[in-house]
Structure formats: C-alpha cells, structure tokens
Write a structure and sequence with these properties.
By secondary structure, the chain is α/β, with parallel strands linked by helices. The chain has one domain (2-148): D-tyrosyl-tRNA(Tyr) deacylase (D-tyrosyl-trna(Tyr) Deacylase, Chain: A), CATH 3.50.80.10. The protein has helices at 39-51, 99-117, and strands spanning 2-15, 18-23, 26-32, 55-56, 62-64, 72-77, 122-123, 130-145. α2 (99-117) links the parallel β6 (72-77) and β7 (122-123). α1 (39-51) runs parallel beside α2 (99-117). The two termini are 15 Å apart. 34% of the residues are buried.
Length: 150
C-alpha cells in the first residue's frame, strides 16, 4: 500500500460537479492499494500518517502531528500510485488491486484513520472521476510505502 501525504491549508474533492468532502488545515492522503496489501499494511500506514510530525509547533519547527493540531484528513483512493513506467511511455497499472480487493481495504483504511484521529474524515468515491483541489502548505509532500518499512 502506498500513500502520498500532503500538508494542506484546505482541500476538497468534487464528483459530478458536487463537493463530496472538504477539509481545512490537515492532511490530504492519496491511497494506492495493491493485491498483496493486508490489514497490517493499513494499521502501519494509519499510525504513520496520524503521528507524522509535519506541522509547526510554537517555535516554527515541524514537531506536531495532525492529531496534535486537531486537524482534518481527506483520503482519496488513487490506483495510479502503483503505475509502472519501466517500459514505454504508457503506464501499466497491473500492480494496482481491482475493486473486489481495493474497495474493502480503502474503506478499512478510512475507518482506521477516523478512529485514530478521533473524528470523521473526508473521503472520495472509489472508481469515480474525482476533481481534487488543495492548497499544499509548505509545500510538504511525503510518500510512504508499507512494503518499505525498514
């Protein structure tokens, strides 16, 4: 499982012209799921995301987590995070999990994030054509892959 975390001042996701979710200060998390992912990957990544100290403290040092600042989270499924570009110019998405595997894992990831944060998070809609808007704060963007824990 791969996630891309962006520290944002605000972010939103729109589907068919309707705003599905919007957040203020917090994290936009793009979530890529592959066939080999397990609940252990979810647990590890959720702990990392919730506890990642990328928000400024009173001294202007990145020393606070999204939970510490009582921030918000928007989690968007994004199969393209597993794109392979080794051959040619057209990406292959063969490593990305199909809906039967990815949807339950995405939902579980979102539920675990919400539980760990202590409040509801915003989500996209799996498989939908989504328009994601954000104001990256910093900019701070961090990529984490559960297959590279060590």
């Amino acid at each position: 499982m791969r996630i891309v975390i962006q520290r944002v001042s605000h972010a939103s996701v729109t589907i068919n012209g309707q705003c599905k979710a919007a957040i203020q200060k917090g994290l936009l998390i793009l979530v890529g799921i592959e066939e080999a992912d397990t609940p252990e990957d979810i647990e590890w990544l959720c702990k990392k995301a919730i506890n990642l100290r990328i928000f400024d403290d009173e001294n202007g040092v990145m020393n606070k987590s999204v939970k510490d600042i009582e921030g918000e989270i928007l989690a968007i499924s994004q199969f393209t995070l597993h794109a392979s570009t080794k051959k040619g110019n057209r990406p292959s998405y063969i490593k990305a999990a199909g809906p039967a595997i990815a949807i339950p894992l995405y939902k579980q990831f979102c539920q675990e994030l919400s539980r760990a944060l202590g409040k509801a998070i915003g989500t996209g809609e799996f498989g939908a054509d989504m328009k994601v808007e954000l104001l990256n704060d910093g900019p701070v963007t961090i990529c984490i892959d559960s297959k590279n824990k060590e």
